[in-house]
Amino acid sequence: MTKTKILDFHTHAFPDKVAARAIPALENAGDIQACTDGTCTGLLHSMDQAGIAKSVICSIATRVEQFQPILEWSQHIQNTRLIPFPSVHPDDPDHMQHIREIHKQGFKGIKLHPYYQDFFLAEEKMTSIYATALECELLLVVHTGFDIAFPRIRRADPVQVDKVLQQFPELRLITTHLGGWDDWQEVERVLIGRPIYLEISFALEYLKPQQAWRLLTSHPEEYLLFGTDCPWADQSRSLKQLRELELSETLFKKILWENGTALLE
Ligand SMILES: [Zn+2]
Question: Could you tell me the distance, in angstroms and rounded to a whole number, from the CA of residue 177 to the centre of ligand 1?
């Protein structure tokens, strides 16, 4: 069997000092156990174990002031294996300028999270963010669906994904958790089969294998991306879950490597 190269499009890591307190706090909030110590070293170790060549690290500015420290840390840690996506807070009065700065510094994308950043995906205040990301040709990874650590308010459901993409059809929006965590009936109703990027983390373990297989094989092949949400899922185990679906070799390779690397070019 030929060895497929693997890119994990959705991971998290923190500065070493931050990790030591952020990981236990997040473990508590989500009632979940982390699979790494939350540092880049821990992530690289997990990648080595799982045979993952590269990981996108999705940072989230939970406060306006975190833009700069996240940007600086992202510059500091980026290398051939770790690809950081910085973040801006939607309430940052300088968010347009800050998005342009992220682009100027050579980063490929940004990450937003509706629960940690208190927004609704399709609300008015977000349009200048989408417009600026589009202008800069930045990828926009956004948490979609419900979140394990928050009340079930529809902040970023498939209907809102559709609304945003109707307004910004050229925007390279990457939904996470197979289009919307724990809202996969809606995903199937609204998103599946359309040219919308779905990153698959934290989904296969919740779906029946037949349903997971159906969703993945009913979607355009170029629009599926492997992701794990590590440390909130184990990279090796996530890979095993995908492998067990026995997708075609062509689709498997596209999900694991080809689609993601094409986006990062
Ligand atoms: Zn995540």
Answer: 9
Reply yes or no on domain 7-264 having CATH 3.20.20.450: no
Residue position matching structure tokens 């698959």: 200
Q: How many angstroms separate the CA atoms of 150 and 196, rounded?
A: 25
Q: How far is CA 167 from CA 52, 103, 131, 171, 220, in A?
A: 35, 22, 10, 9, 21
CB 103: neighbour CB atoms within 10 A?
A: 18
Rounded to 5°, the CA angle 132-135-139 comes to 80
Cα-only R_g, the chain: 17
d(CA 42, CA 51): 14
Residue that is written with structure tokens 């899922």 in the block: 233
Which H, E and C letters describe 231-264, residue by residue? CCCCHHHHHHHHHCCCCCHHHHHHHHHHHHHHHH
Q: For the segment 197-224, what is each residue's pLDDT rounded down to a tens digit?
A: 999 999 999 999 999 999 999 999 999 9
pTM: 0.96
The alpha carbon of 220 and the centre of ligand 1 are apart by a number of angstroms equal to 23
**pLDDT tens, 147-194?**
988 999 999 999 999 999 999 999 999 999 999 999 999 999 999 999
Distance 1 CA to ligand 1 centre (A): 31
3-state secondary structure of 144: coil
Say if residues 127 and 164 touch (Cβ distance below 8 Å): no
Comparing C-alpha atoms, which of 153, 175, 176, 152 is closest to residue 163?
175
